[in-house]
Amino acid sequence: MKVVVLGGGIAGLCMGIYLHQHDIDVSVNERQIFSAVGGHAFLMHHDGITVLNELAINSNALLPGKEVHTFMLRDSEGLILNEKTLEDWQCFKRTDLLACLNQLLPAYRLKNNRVFSHFIYETDQIVAAAFSNGEVEYGDVFIGADGANSIVRQQIFGEVKFEPGKVKEVVGIIQHAELAGSLQGRFTKFQQKDQGLSFGLIPTSATEMVWFMQYDPLLADIPEGISSRSSGQYHEQLRQLCLNLLKDFPAEVQEVLKYNDFRTSYIWNTRDFDLLPSFHYQNVVLMGDAAHVALPFTSAGTTNAMLDAKTLSHCMLNYPSLPAAFSAYYQLRADSIKEHVNLGRTLRDSFLDATSTGVIPLISTVIK
Ligand SMILES: Cc1cc2nc3c(=O)[nH]c(=O)nc-3n(C[C@H](O)[C@H](O)[C@H](O)COP(=O)(O)OP(=O)(O)OC[C@H]3O[C@@H](n4cnc5c(N)ncnc54)[C@H](O)[C@@H]3O)c2cc1C
Question: Which of 22, 23, 239, 338 has its Cα between 20 and 30 A from that of 171?
Answer without folding.
Answer: 338
